[in-house]
Write a structure and sequence with these properties.
InterPro entries: ACT-like_dom_sf, ACT_dom, ASB_dom_sf, D-2-hydroxyacid_DH, D-isomer_2_OHA_DH_cat_dom, D-isomer_DH_CS, D-isomer_DH_CS1, D-isomer_DH_NAD-bd. By secondary structure, this protein is an alpha/beta fold. Helix content is 33%, strand content 23%. The radius of gyration is 25 Å and the shape is globular. The chain binds 1,4-dihydronicotinamide adenine dinucleotide (NAI) and 2-oxoglutaric acid. The site of 1,4-dihydronicotinamide adenine dinucleotide has 33 residues, from α5, α7 and α14. 2-oxoglutaric acid binds next to loops.
Length: 527
């Protein structure tokens, strides 16, 4: 019988289900060393957010086939290392959506009516009716930052309560926002106009400290902010200061930059602040949903069947997967790249299969391209199962074309993404067994190995420009791993792609854009 380790508290419904096909050991509160010591015995690991599945844990896990996260965020799993070792990572992208949305709404109403303080006051024998006079949410403006699954449900309920809705989501179409009764606006406008702001976006390098002293400074002094998304999206020091100075009226947080929160200055604020211990997903229903969802996937993988919500390896028959894997990885990488170049609100994606690939089943490749395209916006919430639905919900039209006559490589994929103002296109191929290459960017021929941190420029082909960019990067201590230039004609336009050892520090991009001859510069981060 296969062995499953459950290392965080999981609803019994999931454990019972797994018990039918495996030996299940529940061992919570393991130290990192204890986990590394016992993990070699196990075929599957089931976790919530408590267990850190680090590179060291995965390297020690010689039998492991699957890691199941009973929840959405897989921030506590080293997914790239798991993928490298062929370990499937699954999550439950929707099991706790309603729970998290309802928690945000509960916090909004609690802030409006001072429920936690009023409760404490009555329990202390007081009767302070005037002190706890509240405000109504009816006809107030709610700004929703991140209009995905949770944000959409919050918007739907808030609309039914008579609230006016603004939303900011750089990856969502106007049409989808309108369906939800939201006016899609820029972030500054949302901060200036909202009476309540609720955050429902992922934590990424771009969203870290999205709410900071400057953005808080734009809010009304009567405004209230709620964060049930991820800690670190709000700068906690700046929030404390904004509350103390009366810059904003109140805040409610469920998530923190570091958890558990411990004795933070936020706990000692006199002002209106409600703090809950990451309870967004903690309802009986959500815990049953996520436990059963993930346990079913672990069971299926242990029985040799595909998983339905794999964040890293798609649910295909092993023989099909083996054949298509390099091309799916290529499509996902190209999707990610073209999405970053097109910059957000994509209206359509053209997937063109060329050469030998033209006669293949295109569906897995299209899905992989969409997963890559949507991953800057949705991160681990987009997988091979929901990528098509997510794209449709976002109003992205997908067109497939085939051209068997293109013979530069045995098989190649071209993706063209149409944004609001322009269409960007990238092509890639597989060299040898599984080496990925980007072979064309916006019709400029190039030969680039995709890497994690890249800088891409479109510039005038003239002497000195490459040297200047190299010096700029050097002055910021950024090391260049490789460089490729592509051009269509001498002294015309050119593209340059630099692979970097480290992420680009803030401010470098604007310096590079200022170099004479540079028309555009992009930071591209590929997974
Ligand atoms: N407190 C808790 O216990 C729970 C927290 N969460 C967190 O809630 C958040 C939302 O989850 P879901 O709605 O399921 O995710 P989702 O993926 O369905 O929606 C996220 C939305 O954020 C948008 N987005 C991405 N970058 C953005 C940016 N820079 N600015 C504005 N919007 C941006 C995306 O386009 C997407 O529409 C996540 O951070 C998730 O980890 C989820 C479940 C429970
Ligand atoms: O309670 C948990 O497991 C955390 C829920 C959460 O934040 C998530 O699913 O992303």
């Amino acid at each position: 019988m296969p062995k499953v380790l459950v290392s965080d508290p999981i609803d019994p419904s999931g454990i019972d289900l797994l018990g039918q096909v495996a030996q299940v050991d529940v061992k919570t509160k393991l130290s990192p060393e204890e986990l590394i010591q016992i993990i070699p015995e196990y075929d599957a690991l089931m976790i919530r957010s408590g267990t850190q599945v680090t590179e060291a844990v995965i390297e020690a896990a010689t039998q492991l086939k699957i890691i199941g996260r009973a929840g959405v965020g897989v921030d506590n799993v080293d997914v790239p290392t798991a993928t490298k070792k062929g370990i499937v990572v699954v999550n439950s992208p929707e099991g706790n959506t309603i729970a998290a949305a309802e928690h945000a709404l509960a916090l909004m109403l609690s802030l409006s009516r001072h429920i936690p303080d009023a409760n404490q006051s009555v329990k202390a024998g007081k009767w302070e009716r005037k002190k706890f006079t509240g405000v109504e949410v009816y006809k107030k403006t709610l700004g929703v930052v991140g209009l995905g699954k949770i944000g959409s449900h919050v918007a739907t309920v808030a609309r039914a309560m008579g609230m006016k809705l603004l939303a900011y989501d750089p990856f969502l179409s106007q049409e989808r926002a309108e369906q939800l009764g939201c006016r899609l606006v820029e972030l500054d406008f949302l901060f200036q106009e909202s009476d309540y702001i609720t955050l429902h976006l992922p934590k990424t390098p771009e969203t870290q400290n999205l709410v900071n002293a400057e953005t808080l400074g734009k809010m009304k002094s009567t405004a209230r902010i709620i964060n049930c998304a991820r800690g670190g999206i709000i700068d906690e020091d700046a929030l404390g200061k904004a509350l103390e100075s009366g810059q904003i009226a109140a805040a409610a947080l469920d998530v923190y930059a570091s958890e558990p929160l411990g004795d933070s200055p936020l706990c000692h604020l006199e002002q209106d602040i409600i703090l809950t211990p990451h309870l967004g997903a903690s309802t009986e229903e959500a815990q049953t949903n996520v436990a059963v969802d993930v346990a079913e996937q672990i069971r299926d993988v242990l029985l040799g069947l595909p998983a339905r919500s794999a964040v890293n390896i798609p649910g295909l028959r092993p023989d099909v997967l083996e054949k298509l894997k390099p091309y799916m990885l290529l499509a996902e990488t190209l999707g990610n790249l073209v999405g970053q170049l097109a910059g957000g609100r994509i209206e359509s994606l053209d997937v063109r299969l060329q050469g030998e690939l033209a006669s293949n089943d295109s569906q897995p490749i299209v899905v992989a391209a969409l997963k890559g395209l949507l991953s800057p916006a949705l991160r681990e919430r987009v997988n091979y199962v929901n990528a098509g639905i997510e794209a449709k919900d976002r109003g992205i039209r997908v067109v497939e074309t085939r051209d068997a006559s293109v013979r530069d490589y045995s098989g190649s994929i071209q993706l063209s993404a149409k944004g609001p103002s322009e269409t960007r296109s990238v092509t890639g191929a597989i060299l040898g067994e599984d080496e990925l290459r980007i072979t064309n960017i916006d019709d400029f021929p190039i030969n680039v190995v995709p890497t994690r941190h890249m800088l891409l420029t479109v510039h005038r082909d003239m002497p000195g420009i490459i040297g200047q960019i190299g010096s700029q990067l050097g002055s910021f201590n950024v090391n260049i791993a490789s460089m490729q230039v592509g051009r269509k004609m001498v002294r015309g336009s050119a593209v340059m792609v630099l692979s970097l050892d480290d992420p680009l520090p803030e401010g470098v991009l604007s310096e590079i854009t200022n170099v004479e001859g540079i028309r555009d510069a992009y930071i591209v981060n590929l997974q």
